[in-house]
Amino acid sequence: VANGTNGGTEDPDTVLKDVNPPHSARIITKAVENNVRAAGGLNIGVLEALKYQSDWIGQIQSSVVINKRWLETMRSKANSSTAHGIGGRLTYEKHTDIIWADGHFLTEGRILNLRFKRQLNDPGDDPNRWTFPCLSAALFSAKTVQLINNKYGNFVTEQLPHYGDCMDVALRFANLGYRDFLHVSEALGTKRGPSLRNVDVMCCQLL
């Protein structure tokens, strides 16, 4: 999804020129003139993906660079799991030995990163709690995605940026009875942290 071509987002046809021909033939692009932010772009991508027969629908945001074995690792775990959503491990782009998130969790009405700023070689243990994937890089069951789209009219609300969209998707899954998510620590990606207004982040975490 080329999100906001009127605002400087590169034309997808130009991007595809840098992709090896065998792979570029498998890529379907959607150009959006006005930037509809991350959640809006995800909804557009999901609608397009649902047109094709697949078991899983995933997203990789532009702020993430995945390891070359990320997709292979995620798919192998997905095929042997009953989970309806799967997320990997994200580390900081400039400090790849420090974890940015192993997903999210809810506590005292706030959404927080799991294992935030833990060392990669010492992630430690967390109490048993309900956790869910970060939308920055995740896979979801295509059948469940279709059910959510049918019920709510889209996959994710576009009103809650940052942490709120991840929470919204998780609660939509849970509302349909699908609370099982899988974390795959071997599926690595690096996260480029955007410049955020702290007040926006905290409001989304509370919501």
Structure description:
By secondary structure, the protein is an alpha+beta fold. It contains seven helices and eleven strands. The strands form three sheets. Strands 3, 4, 5, 6, 10 and 11 form a six-stranded mixed beta sheet that branches. Strand 7 (104-107) and strand 8 form a beta hairpin. The longest helix has 13 residues, at 37-49. The relative contact order is 0.19. The model has no long low-confidence stretch (mean pLDDT 89).
Blueprint (SSEs and pairs):
Blueprint: E1 2-3, H1 12-16, H2 21-24, E2 31-32, H3 37-49, E3 56-60, E4 64-66, H4 70-79, E5 85-92, E6 99-101, E7 104-107, E8 110-113, E9 131-132, E10 137-141, H5 142-152, H6 163-175, E11 181-191, H7 198-206
At a glance:
Helices cover 31% and strands 24% of the residues. The chain contains seven helices and eleven strands. A hairpin with a 2-residue loop joins strand 7 and strand 8 (110-113).
Element-by-element helix/strand order: EHHEHEEHEEEEEEHHEH
How helix-rich are the residues, as a percent range? 25-40%
What would you call the structural class?
Answer: alpha+beta
What is the number of helices? Answer: 7
Q: In angstroms, what is the radius of gyration?
A: 17 Å
Proportion in β-strands = 15-25%
Largest sheet: number of strands, sense, barrel closure: 6 strands, mixed
Straight-line distance between termini? 27 Å
Shape assignment = globular
> How much is the average pLDDT?
89
